[in-house]
Write a structure and sequence with these properties.
Blueprint: E1 2-8, H1 16-32, H2 40-62, E2 65-74, E3 77-83, H3 86-90, H4 98-106, H5 108-112, E4 117-123, E5 127-129, H6 142-152, E6 158-165, H7 175-179, E7 185-190, E8 199-206, E9 210-212, E10 216-226, E11 232-239, E12 242-250, E13 255-265, E14 270-278, E15 291-299, E16 303-309, H8 314-324, E17 329-335, E18 349-353, H9 361-369, E19 374-377, H10 384-390, E20 394-397, E21 403-410, H11 421-428, E22 433-436, E23 439-442, E24 447-454, E25 457-469, E26 472-477, H12 482-493, H13 497-511, E27 519-523, E28 527-529, E29 535-541, E30 547-548, E31 553-559, E32 564-568, E33 570-572, E34 575-579, E35 586-596, E36 599-610, H14 623-633, E37 637-638, H15 646-652, E38 659-668, H16 673-692
Parallel strand pairs: 3-4, 3-6, 6-7, 7-37, 9-15, 16-17, 16-18, 18-19, 19-26, 28-36
Antiparallel strand pairs: 1-2, 2-38, 4-5, 8-10, 10-13, 11-12, 11-14, 14-15, 20-23, 21-22, 21-24, 24-25, 25-26, 27-29, 29-30, 29-34, 31-32, 31-35, 33-34, 35-36
Length: 696
């Protein structure tokens, strides 16, 4: 590190420097021009001390600046990122020693010496510090590792990235897109085996989570087979342990891939577990990827939703598509002028889109006399006075009929149902809705899911709220423009999952008490990945169908091997929630109990913890990806046996060199402490010499 100092005059003319010097000389001459009782040699010294001191003080009055330049050399960074996912060790070529490879990779730091700053990392689905010899990662995300390295060392002198992997990833995007952001050479170490192995696997299962009693439904199984030409692919499906379908197909190529549609019959109500399996073939590499488990709920009938609207709006189609994404719901949209012919008793939920129920006598009578759930949606056409009088969830007081843009602000402590983290993150990135301008109030029974963010200001104004009072569930959305959400979500995320989950969960909550089930215990989903926390919810209703959570709710979770796990639900809001943590892979059933008054309630269900076998889905290393990453960055792809050449390649790369950064800073000369010390020393020395010569 090197420091350089200089004086700059800033906005003041540099001609003040000789003026200050002349002023010091003039002052000293006036002081010592008359003969004094001091020897001539001493008088010259005193003259010089006084002239310098006055000149320096004059400099301070002009306020010059001190310019400090710091030169900081930065050695080139060499980042080593090592893939430690299980596929590296599972599908390694013959003779490859993973422990020896990690040791050789660690020697690169010593081989490069002190001229380079070498940092070591390992990754699976996330980035970790240091090298690892475990090779037990269950997922691989190369793009995330590259992005985190780039963000961690942004604006630093990254000379080279050494990426040791087999090129196989099962999470994240194509690493080539993320690698373009790193402006340095990438040297890839090609691990894994490119030799195809014999393997059968189920790549994907497409199905609807609900079916209707007495109907047929389709399950599509995407099966693949490698190096198995001439063998037979035997597919079987079991429902709750009972085999319901078998099928055999001849494998006609070395890289076989086929989507197999299977028609099944829903002959029993309830939640059913389907196990889809491929029979192993001789010498198969891995059988962990031959089985998939799905759950399908068979329902008696589809819930019907009526959407009544004042006039045509693009939101109508968006709401219909989002609600009907769940096969359990059927939505019919009816304009206000045709509501007279509607048979109200057919519907389990009414959505009023910018429409007042008081303007429709038959609709108002139906809502008043029944406990049918109602969802109010406000917009530019809403009569706010009628809107606020018909429901107590969200009250809007507006002196004018203006609309304003409001962004979504999710509420953390909402407990009536659960939205996934990905949905909450996507909602934060969606464009604003248009909400009526005014003051907003919230009823005592309201549970707010979304609040309004106006510009950059987080407000307490509710945007989407729910309640369960007097045996009726109600929701209010105080804004229009969800069609913009649909377009933006597809453009940004290439799907509509956030919108479908928001509307699906909302409608499911509103219609949940239609069957008068007093005690419900359910999981967020039926199949959890290994290592994922198991989340359960419970709802208890009194005789008036009001949510209560005064009694305790106990649950016993039992594995297929007979091991029991007992828990007590936590109270959250008006219902219950339980985070059972992580459980071993396998099938589980649960029984929950609660007692309200003299009545005992029981809820049962089942779920599966699926063993993560993503790393076993593909055995052939993707060295083409590694070659492309190295080529586009000016680096090179190496085999593990060539690792000893890497240090020389990095040294010979002219783009990898030490960079010197200069840091310029300006400060007032009067702030420099040594200037004060100098003035004090000059005047003190002058005073001391005068006293010694007998002058005062």
């Amino acid at each position: 590190m090197l420091f350089l100092f200089s004086i700059t005059w800033g906005s003041v003319s540099g001609w003040w420097a000789p003026v200050c010097l002349l002023l010091g000389l003039l002052y000293a001459w006036l002081m010592y021009r008359q003969p004094v009782n001091i020897v001539q040699r001493s008088r010259y010294l005193l003259f010089a001390l006084r002239a310098v001191a006055v000149s320096v003080i004059a400099f301070l009055l002009v306020s010059p600046l001190v310019k400090t330049v710091t030169y900081q050399p930065q050695k080139p960074l060499v980042l080593i990122a090592q893939d430690h996912s299980s596929s590296i060790n599972t599908f390694k070529p013959k003779g490859f020693n993973v422990s020896q490879f990690v040791a050789h990779l660690g020697e690169l730091k010593k081989a490069l010496g002190d001229e380079y700053d070498v940092r070591e990392f390992n990754f699976d689905q996330a980035l970790h510090t240091g090298l690892s010899g475990m090779f037990n990662g269950r997922q691989t995300n190369i793009s995330t590792a590259v992005r985190e390295l780039n963000e961690r060392f942004v604006n630093q002198n990254i000379g080279a990235l050494v990426l040791a992997t087999d090129g196989l990833y099962n999470q994240g995007s194509d690493p080539q897109y993320e690698a373009r952001n790193i402006k340095s050479s990438i040297y890839t170490i090609a691990l894994g085996d490119t030799t195809p192995r014999r393997d059968l696997l189920i790549t994907n299962v497409s199905y609807n989570k609900t079916a209707f009693l007495g109907n047929d439904f389709i399950v599509e199984v995407l099966a693949e087979a490698y190096q198995s030409r001439g063998a037979t692919l035997r597919l079987s499906i079991a429902e709750d342990g009972r085999q319901v379908h078998t099928q055999s197909l001849a494998i006609g190529s070395s890289a076989y891939r086929k989507t197999i549609p299977v028609k099944l019959h829903a002959d029993k109500k309830g939640l059913h577990k389907y196990t889809i399996s491929l029979a192993p073939v001789a010498n198969e590499l891995s059988t962990q990827n031959n089985t998939e488990t799905i759950y399908i709920e068979v329902l008696d009938a589809r819930q019907k939703v009526l959407l009544a609207y004042a006039s045509a709006h693009p939101d109508i189609r968006t709401i219909k598509q989002s609600v009907e994404h769940n096969q359990n719901f059927e939505l019919k949209a009816v304009p206000a002028d045709k509501l007279a012919g509607v048979k109200w008793s057919d519907y389990n939920l009414v959505i009023l889109y910018q429409l007042s129920a008081s303007a429709q006598p038959s609709l108002k009578d139906f809502i008043t006399k029944t406990k049918v759930p109602v969802w109010y949606i406000a917009g530019a056409q809403t009569n706010l006075q009628a809107f606020s009088s018909e429901q107590q969830l969200i009250q809007i007081s507006a002196g004018r009929t203006e609309m304003q843009e409001v962004f979504v602000l999710p509420v953390n402590n909402f407990s009536l149902f659960t939205l996934s983290d990905s949905t909450l993150q996507q909602l934060n990135q969606l464009p604003p809705l248009l909400a009526p301008y005014g003051n907003y109030g919230t009823g005592n029974a309201a549970a707010v899911l979304l609040r309004q963010k106006i510009g950059n200001v987080n407000t307490a104004y509710p945007l989407l709220a729910f309640s369960d009072a007097d045996g009726r569930r109600t929701a209010v959305l105080a804004g229009e423009g969800v069609w913009r959400w649909q377009l933006s979500a597809f453009q940004t995320f290439d799907n509509h999952r956030a919108l479908e989950e928001l509307f699906g969960q909302s409608v499911q909550y509103l219609t949940a008490n239609a069957n008068r089930q007093r005690f419900r215990v359910y999981t967020g989903k039926n199949v959890f990945d290994e290592g994922e926390n198991v989340l359960l919810n419970a709802e208890l209703y009194n005789d008036a169908l009001e949510l209560v959570n005064t009694p305790d709710v106990n649950i016993n979770i039992k594995s297929a091997t007979g091991k029991n796990y007992s828990y007590l639900f936590s109270r959250k809001g008006q219902s219950y929630q339980l985070d059972a943590g992580t459980l071993p892979a396998g099938d589980y059933s649960y029984t929950a109990t609660s007692r309200l008054g003299t009545q005992t309630f029981t809820g049962k269900g089942q779920f599966t913890i699926k063993q993560l076998n993503l790393e076993s889905r593909q055995s052939t290393a993707n060295h083409q990806l590694l070659y492309a990453l190295a080529r586009q960055s000016g680096g090179q792809m190496l085999q593990p046996a060539q690792l000893n050449r890497l240090a020389d390649m990095i040294r010979k790369n002219e783009n990898i060199k030490t960079v010197v950064y200069d840091d310029k800073r300006y400060s007032d000369l009067i702030d420099v402490k040594w200037v004060f010390v100098l003035i004090l020393a000059l005047l003190s020395t002058e005073w001391f010499l005068r006293k010694r010569e007998g002058e005062v």
